[in-house]
């Protein structure tokens, strides 16, 4: 294939680190850009240098047609890990390669570190507050004050009535 020796391939991953708990779903992205006449690229995921999944094949002709026949093609492969467990902890790398006519490969320099912790149930407490009952002393003072005001008003009214009646 013409131009394969000039394969300009760039590979990167995101995110750099994932901290999660058991049972959660995790996605790791492997993005690659290349400029070549290559017709087929493969992506493989590794965890601690052990193959995780079957390689995914990318038909470059189809990708070029989506990119208006540009020689430069960009693509992202996603490793989906549903319901992770403690054993899924490790460092994940994506490897992009072409093996015809000559093996050429590139592994992302920065892997993704996955840390899975044990699930810890969260106990939620709801504190319900109600208004504090009135203190007896306060009620007594307020009641006595109100009664005193009513008596004083009554006395003043009586004095005024008596005074005006004499005139």
Automatic annotation (TrEMBL):
Transmembrane segments: 137-164
Gene Ontology terms describing biological process: B cell differentiation; B cell receptor signaling pathway
InterPro entries on file: Ig-like_dom (IPR007110), Ig-like_dom_sf (IPR036179), Ig-like_fold (IPR013783), Ig/MHC_CS (IPR003006), Ig_sub (IPR003599), Ig_sub2 (IPR003598), Ig_V-set (IPR013106)
Claim: Transmembrane helix is one of the keywords in the record: yes
The keyword Disulfide bond is annotated on this UniProt entry: no
Record keywords: Immunoglobulin domain, Membrane, Transmembrane, Transmembrane helix
Every Ig-like domain range: 22-108
Signal peptide: none
A GO CC term attached to the entry: external side of plasma membrane
Gene3D superfamilies, sorted: Immunoglobulins (2.60.40.10)
PANTHER family referenced in this protein's UniProt entry, alphabetically: B-CELL ANTIGEN RECEPTOR COMPLEX-ASSOCIATED PROTEIN (PTHR14334), B-CELL ANTIGEN RECEPTOR COMPLEX-ASSOCIATED PROTEIN BETA CHAIN (PTHR14334:SF2)
Name of this protein: Ig-like domain-containing protein
